[in-house]
Amino acid sequence: MSHKFRTRRGVLCLRLTKKLPDGSLAVADNYTMRMMRHGRRVYFPLPSDRKEAGRVADEIDAFLDVRSNTFDMAIKKFTPDRWEKVNPSAKIATVGAVLEAHEKARTALGIEDRTARGYRDSLLLLFKQGLAARRDGREPADEAVRAMGLHELNGRLVADFKVARVNLAGEDKAAQESKKRSANGVLRGVRALFSEAAREHYNHLTLPTGLDEVLAHMKFRKVGKIKKRLPAVAVLRRVFGEAHELRATDRNAYLAFLLAAHAGFRKGEIGHAQRGWIEKESTPPRLWVKTTPEFKIKDGDERFVEVQPWVIEELEALSESPANLIGGGKHERREMTFKRLNLWLKSKGLAGEKGEKAVHALRFLFGSYLTNRFNLYTAQRFLGHDSPETTNTHYADIMLDASLFALWEVRPTWAGAATVKNTQSA
Fold first, then answer.
1. Which of 351, 378, 354, 368 is nearest to 407 (CA)?
2. Are the beta carbons of 264 and 366 closer than 8 angstroms?
3. CATH topology of domain 233-415
4. Local structure of 76: helix, strand or coil
5. Quick check: helix, strand or coil at residue 325?
6. Can you tell me the distance from the alpha carbon of 263 to that of 258, in angstroms, rounded to the nearest whole number?
């Protein structure tokens, strides 16, 4: 039996031998790859199976054919244990090390604790469900996942996670699409954990060289649209027509209502909204969403929304804070205001979709108005979606009766008697 062979790319693979004191020859179980590059002889350990050894050897050879890839990069990618032994200070990061570093950097990153925990939980869930697919459904404990090297986050793990996630839906096609969307949500959380800003706080860790390639191709590429429906017309007219109740009894909740229903702001954007975000000189006036020391914009880019003049007038007249549009301390601005607003909206018959709060339904209504009054690209720009596909998925099939445009375009009686023409740009 031959202990060496060449792969289809011509790479020499052999089982190393050693002469024992008694004169016999000991043959290694595993194959080893031997090659010469730039005057340097290099060895890489390979699997014991000949076919698998040849596949891995060709993969390493192809990797090193790329001029920018070095031997050290190949060692990190294909034999991380060896790299750690040679370079103890450059130990490949564990899952737990990344989670710990992200938790410590949360404030510096400017993200809410709940959001940061969601990102970290996404990584744990990816590992647990992906590994469970290989273990007859048995998920590893959190402690076991935290101890794993991050190089385990590879294409196979992502594929196993996707399969496990969709299999939970059985044969129900609609449920399968829902599981794909939820899987993409988990994978977005994982990608956020390794954003450019987050990695600045991982400088003491060595991340796997192939991580970016894995992150770039994680999501399901084709997912069915979310079928959303508008509330009944009577509910819409009640919510918009009776907002004066909030104006009279709960200014913060009313201001949050304006920012969500007439500017499409998200909860975090409302809680951090500042007077300096108002731009009255434009025609029509604009409300900006900007990064602050305490707030990082979702998807990263600052944006503006064109709003009706009366909305700006209301915000300026009723806001009692010199800096923020919503008054009070952090807990009031970021939590309690929304609890009261959600309760009021539900009392009027407006409830959020599964997993959402009713206040997010106001943003959805504003997006529906933009899409029907103008177009998907205007809606994408004003809502701050990262791509037109996101807007298309949520709003393309929504039909809003033109008679309801007045809910956004006509100044309500409690805000003054004047009626203004719509000035929003197409």
1. 368
2. yes
3. hpI Integrase; Chain A (1.10.443)
4. helix
5. coil
6. 7
User: Cα separation of 337 and 264, whole Å?
Assistant: 17
Written as six digits, the tokens of 297 are 């914009």
What's the whole-number average pLDDT of the chain? 85
H helices of 276-319, in order, are 309-318
Environment class of residue 271 by beta-carbon count within 10 Å: exposed (0-12), middle (13-18) or buried (19+)?
buried
Tell me: the pLDDT tens digits for 27-38?
Answer: 888 899 887 776
Give SS3 for 295: strand
CA-to-CA distance for 412 and 11, rounded, in angstroms?
A: 77
pTM surpassing 0.70? no
From the CA atom positions of the chain, what is the Rg in Å?
28
- Residues ≥6 apart with Cβ < 8 Å to 266: 298, 360, 363, 384
Q: For residue 270, which amino acid is it?
A: I
Local structure of residue 405 (DSSP, 8 states)? G
List, as own/partner pairs, every contact residues 67-73 make where C-beta atoms lie below 8 angstroms and the sequence separation is at least 24, other chains included.
71/37, 71/40, 71/42, 73/209
Per-residue pLDDT tens digits for 321-351? 889 999 999 999 999 999 999 999 999 999 7
CA distance 367 to 246: 22
- Rounded Cα distance, 405 and 148, in Å: 54
DSSP letter, residue 276: G
Confidence at residue 86, expressed as pLDDT on a 0 to 100 scale: 54
């997006």: which residue's tokens?
367
Give the separation between CA 226 and CA 239, rounded to whole angstroms.
24
Q: Which residue has the tokens 């977005």?
A: 188
- For the chain, the structural domain boundaries read 4-78, 95-216, 233-415
Residue that the structure tokens 């710990």 belong to: 100
Residue 344 token pair: 């009021």
Cα 166 to Cα 175: distance, rounded to the nearest angstrom: 8
258-302: per-residue pLDDT in tens? 999 999 999 999 999 999 999 999 889 999 999 888 888 876 678
Residue 311 has what pLDDT?
95
State both tokens at 46: 């390979």
> Which amino acid, residue 222?
K
